[in-house]
Input
Amino acid sequence: MSRIGKKPVTVPAGVTASIDGRKLNVKGPKGSLSLDLRDEITYDVQDGGISVQPANDSKSARAFWGMQRTMVQNLVTGVTEGFSKKLLITGVGYRANAQGKKLKLQLGYSHDVDLDVPEGIEVKTPDQTTVEISGSDKQAVGQFAAEIRRWRKPEPYKGKGIKYDGEFIFRKEGKKK
Output
């Protein structure tokens, strides 16, 4: 029995949700998002919220129940508040600069790393060592942040690299004399 799945997703004022075939469409002040619906789960859109229930008592239906409810919650949160990730760049000469729909990273390579910002995502660089990624789709924001971090993962000796804000990097002791 899913404790998360039992709770209905509340739909705040200004947000509309509708089921069109096998898609759940959610529209709000920050845009619209859609989710492909699973056959194992039944979705019920009411005036105050969206309830998610397993269609039958199979193991796969119960396994998808809580995850599908969380994905519906992410849609509603995305169109109302949005999601954001903050990356911190540590290292001498490492810097970032957002230029329109491109992100230019200088990470100690012989060349600059130019990344195209995906559609629906906004990237800001308040200073040269901070990158703020925001958007309404949680998966797209997290994926783009992971792609940026992949260029220079933080190393454990000096802590140089790109890390998430609040991430703890386990530091190792260097060589002893």
